[in-house]
Specification:
By secondary structure, the protein is an alpha/beta fold. Helix content is 38%, strand content 26%. Strands 1, 2, 3, 4, 5, 6, 7, 8, 9, 10 and 11 form an eleven-stranded mixed β-sheet that branches. The protein is globular. The model is unreliable at 1-5 and 13-17 (pLDDT under 50).
Length: 256
């Protein structure tokens, strides 16, 4: 077992030292799948006034393309489920997304660069105080379709259901207009929404804890070895920390 672990370390180090650009970006340009939403998180990028994506995944994508010595093309999606679906379709070479068992059947994951907790945001004056309160019949719960957060929320609820929508922007509007009682997202994304919804509250605790990780399409072992080595190096040399800080997530810890 120690021999296998040692051999893997050597192979990962070799991939990091000699990036297999042809394996990672066979088209000559690194295509990176990212989610773009209304508020920043370790997964969500946002758009600047010019319309260009900015955020943690964008910074990691740029660093990876530079390391490989290839051009970068960002492939933007409205939610993490659509990012996942793009892998088997050949729409991207590398992506970043929260990990769950459903996705692991569709893509191959490398190491996490961030550990995510998901909970609920409720409106100002809401009688909902705990996670258990969300499971009361009649509570209108909303999440983003195709996401690990929405799937986990649905599994955690015994007396209630989750209605899903394509984008996080829709969740924000539902809460703002009073058409949802609780919205399910990662804690960092909820913090961004809370700042725009005076009096709203993020519930203590969580119904999901998982990693946000790098991924490649199934069966690309050389690419997986490279991106795994890249992320571990990026965690150690401060690249991930700098990307989180630049996105305003200074209190968000890098995954160990």
């Amino acid at each position: 077992m120690k021999f296998v672990a040692g051999l893997l370390s050597v192979l990962l180090a070799a991939c990091a030292a000699n990036p297999p650009a042809a394996e990672v970006a066979p088209g000559g340009t690194l295509r990176v799948g990212i989610g773009v939403g209304p508020v920043p998180s370790a997964f969500w990028a946002t758009r600047d006034p010019s319309g260009e994506p900015r955020g943690v995944t964008v910074e990691l994508a740029r660093a990876m393309a530079k390391d490989l010595g290839v051009a970068l093309r960002l492939v933007a999606y409205a939610n993490s489920g659509e990012v996942t679906d793009g892998g088997p379709k050949g729409e991207w070479d590398v992506a970043f997304m929260p990990v769950d068992d459903v996705r692991a059947r569709m893509v191959d994951f490398g190491p996490a660069y961030y550990l995510t907790q998901s909970t609920y945001l409720v409106a100002a004056g809401s009688p909902i105080r705990t996670l258990a309160d969300v499971d009361r019949p009649g509570v209108r719960v909303a999440g983003v379709e195709g996401t690990t957060t929405a799937r986990s929320a649905a599994r955690s609820l015994k007396n209630n259901t989750v209605k899903t929508y394509r984008t996080a922007d829709e969740l924000f509007e539902l809460m703002r207009s009073g058409n949802a009682d609780a919205i399910a997202l990662g804690r960092e994304s909820l913090a961004g929404m809370q700042a725009k919804l005076p009096g709203s509250r993020i519930l203590d605790g969580h119904f999901q804890a998982t990693g946000t990780a790098v991924a490649v399409p199934k069966g690309r072992s050389a690419a997986l070895a490279y991106v795994s080595a890249f992320v571990e190096k990026a965690k150690k040399d401060g690249t991930v920390r700098k990307a989180l800080d630049s996105a305003g997530l200074k209190d968000s810890p890098v995954a160990p």
